[in-house]
From TrEMBL, chain A:
This is Cytochrome c oxidase subunit 3. Residues 4-263 form the Heme-copper oxidase subunit III family profile domain. It comes from the Eukaryota. GO terms for molecular function: cytochrome-c oxidase activity. Keywords: Membrane, Mitochondrion, Translocase, Transmembrane, Transmembrane helix. It is a multi-pass membrane protein. It is found in: Membrane. Its main location: membrane. The keyword Mitochondrion applies. GO terms for biological process: mitochondrial electron transport, cytochrome c to oxygen. Component of the cytochrome c oxidase, the last enzyme in the mitochondrial electron transport chain which drives oxidative phosphorylation. The respiratory chain contains 3 multisubunit complexes succinate dehydrogenase (complex II, CII), ubiquinol-cytochrome c oxidoreductase (cytochrome b-c1 complex, complex III, CIII) and cytochrome c oxidase (complex IV, CIV), that cooperate to transfer electrons derived from NADH and succinate to molecular oxygen, creating an electrochemical gradient over the inner membrane that drives transmembrane transport and the ATP synthase. The chain crosses the membrane at residues 16-38, 44-62, 83-104, 129-149, 161-181, 193-222, 242-261. Pfam families: COX3 (PF00510).
UniProtKB/TrEMBL annotation, chain B:
CDD domains: Cyt_c_Oxidase_VIb. It is found in: Mitochondrion. It comes from the Eukaryota. It holds the Pfam family COX6B. This is Cytochrome c oxidase subunit. The lineage of its organism: Eukaryota, Rotosphaerida, Fonticulaceae, Fonticula. InterPro entries: COX6B-like, CX6/COA6-like_sf, Cyt_c_oxidase_su6B. GO terms for cellular component: mitochondrion; respiratory chain complex IV. Gene3D superfamilies: Cytochrome c oxidase, subunit VIb. It comes from Fonticula alba (Slime mold).
From TrEMBL, chain C:
It is a multi-pass membrane protein. This is Cytochrome c oxidase subunit 2. It catalyses: 4 Fe(II)-[cytochrome c] + O2 + 8 H(+)(in) = 4 Fe(III)-[cytochrome c] + 2 H2O + 4 H(+)(out). The chain crosses the membrane at residues 32-52, 72-94. Binds a copper A center.
Length: 268, 81, 240
């Protein structure tokens, strides 16, 4: 390795950024083709999406190598990575602000076409005290278990870390499964007025984030089992926990404002 | 035409409940009020006539036709009694 | 006397105002332009001085880091300029919003791609569509892409309330001489008012891109004396 007299990490040349750019462009363009019903739009979209995933995988493998094998991730570099991830979460927060904005814009002063009531007439809102409450409990529990895992990893307790991550992943998957069943059972669709649109945009994007968080947790579990996370160096675990807790908090707000607040048992 | 009443300039005046550029609720509220009034006192009651004049002046004809259809078919989303 | 109620080629100024609101807009424009010219000349002068006076001694002020007095001056002065621009602006904005004592309500509905007008203050509604006249149908002296088959007729010197909406996509009802440009939004009724202070024919165009024929749905407002307006209304009521 080249000699360096500083603690910064000067990156080697990498094909992944440009590869990612092209994969994303392919995904976006084929998504447009797909949505407009062009021939082959769906298969091109699939290829683009798989290429994005492949690039992600290769890129992260490289980062993992730089961290574990080359020792490039000094404390200073770790700090930079964490600040970067916090900025990413802030941008995610603004994304959800936009979705909540759409929801409150439509629900706080419902338009006259909906009869100035929310939920609109004919929409049978889901009972928040049924599956959504269970989902809240499942998510909060998974957050608690993940914190247990965090404590385990800084006290270098590998069995506890592994088990807690496993439980978190199972709870996260239960959440996705319950949401899936709830979607199947719901009597309204994304096309049923602005209620359906905002409901499925909000909960759907939250669900996608939970799925991404689950994949992230699985990656963390893998890296823990193979000893790539240590008690002193586990940036991947930290950021994963932040991300998962963030998605958790978003759900709490979503449960309160999208499920609980508009629901009235007498209207249904 | 002989059955046409003499044309006078008369239009709904400023309503302090709706001080903004957006007058959607002004039109809608008068439509709802007219039907509630008509159900309670009959269409020819003076107050009801006033409600009707107001929403007729403010609401696009297309909207009034659509809402009236909904009222007749019992699918108007708001209670009118 | 001829009034400029229509755009001419390469125009960069306003059309002649026909409402107090448009007169207000032109006054505000002139007011702001005064500050704009003063600021532009001053800043250009300062920049020129810096460039030409100090072109051979780049580092003569290398150790100046701050100067409280000059910083206060260049913060407070622009603040005062902004305030003196903002106040007349807000005054005009809130005057434009006033619809206190209207005598006539006219509903304007945008469609792809024509306007329709509804007068519903009377025993029954007057309702008509206003399509652009195709170039082949124009007579000498008529304006290409601006004339319509049915004009919107309004009484002069009268407070008219406009309710503007759309039946499909967003349009925008705009007539420069009247100082009105208001979006027509489906599912929403936007209200504005006008008092046209002279007779005339005023031309405008849809001002929110609304599809392929966005440029071919002009607006024509014909302002007439009150007697003529009443007889026009009577004719329309009889025809309806």
């Amino acid at each position: 390795m080249r000699y360096k007299n500083h603690t910064y990490h000067i990156l080697d040349n990498s094909p992944w950024p440009i590869f990612m750019a092209f994969s994303l462009m392919l995904s976006m363009k084929s998504a447009v083709l797909f949505m407009h019903g062009f021939n082959g739009g769906s298969s091109t979209l699939l290829i683009g999406f798989l290429l994005v995933l492949l690039t992600f995988f290769c890129w992260f493998v490289d980062v993992s190598k730089e961290s574990t094998l080359s020792g490039c991730h000094t404390y200073l570099v770790q700090r930079g990575l964490k600040i970067g991830f916090i900025l990413f979460i802030v941008s995610e927060l603004m994304f959800f602000v936009a979705l909540f904005w759409a929801f409150f814009h439509s629900s706080l002063a419902p338009s006259v076409d909906l009869g100035v009531v929310w939920p609109p007439k004919g929409i049978q809102a889901l009972n928040p005290l049924s599956v959504p409450l269970l989902n809240t409990i499942v998510l909060v529990a998974s957050g608690v278990v993940l914190t247990w895992g965090h404590h385990a990893i800084i006290t270098a307790n590998k069995p506890h870390t592994t088990v807690s991550l496993l439980i978190t992943i199972i709870l996260a998957m239960s959440f996705t499964g319950l949401q899936f069943l709830e979607y199947i059972d719901s009597t309204f669709s994304i096309a049923d007025s602005v209620y359906g649109s905002t409901f499925f945009m909000c909960t759907g994007f939250h669900g996608i984030h939970i799925i991404i968080g689950t994949i992230y947790l699985i990656t963390c579990l893998y890296r823990t089992v193979y000893g790539l996370n240590t008690n002193s160096s586990h940036v991947g675990f930290d950021t994963c926990a932040w991300y998962y807790h963030f998605v958790d908090i978003v759900w709490i707000f979503m449960f309160i404002s999208v499920y609980y607040w508009p629901y009235s048992p007498t209207l249904n | 035409m002989s059955d046409r009443p003499e044309t006078v300039l008369q239009t709904p005046q400023f309503d302090a409940r709706f001080p903004n550029v957006n007058q959607t609720k002004n039109c809608w509220q008068n439509f709802v009020d007219f039907h509630r009034c008509a159900n309670a006192r009959g269409e020819d009651f003076p107050v009801c006539v006033q409600f009707k004049k107001t929403f007729t002046s403010l609401c696009p004809i297309e909207w009034v036709d659509r809402w009236t259809d909904q009222v007749e078919n019992g699918v108007f989303p708001t209670k009118l009694d | 006397m001829m009034n400029l109620d229509i755009a001419y080629p390469l125009q960069y100024g306003f059309q002649d105002p026909a409402t107090p609101v448009m007169q207000g807009i032109i006054s505000l424009h002139d007011h702001i332009f005064f500050y704009l010219i003063v600021t532009t000349v001053f800043v250009t002068w300062i920049l020129s001085v810096i460039i030409f006076e100090f072109k051979d001694e780049f580092f003569s002020h290398k150790y100046i880091r701050h100067g409280t007095l000059i910083e206060i001056i260049w913060t407070v002065t622009p603040a005062f300029i902004l305030i003196s621009i903002a106040f007349p602006s807000f005054r005009l904005l809130y005057l434009m919003d006033e619809v206190i004592d209207p005598a006539v309500t006219i509903k304007v509905v945008g469609h792809q791609w024509y306007w329709s007008y509804e007068y519903s203050d009377h025993a029954w509604s007057i309702e008509f569509d206003s399509y652009m006249l195709p170039t082949s149908d124009l007579e000498l002296g008529q304006f290409r892409l601006l004339e319509v088959d049915n004009r919107m007729v309004v009484p002069m010197d009268t407070h008219v309330r406009l309710i503007i909406t759309s039946s499909d996509v967003i349009h925008s009802w705009a007539v420069p001489s009247l100082g009105i440009k208001l979006d027509a939004i489906p599912g929403r009724l936007n209200q504005t008012s006008m008092i046209i202070n002279r007779e005339g024919v005023f031309f405008g165009q849809c001002s929110e891109i609304c599809g392929v024929q966005h440029g071919f749905m002009p607006i024509v407002v014909e302002s007439v004396k009150m007697d003529n307006y009443i007889s026009w209304v009577n004719n329309m009521l009889d025809e309806a």
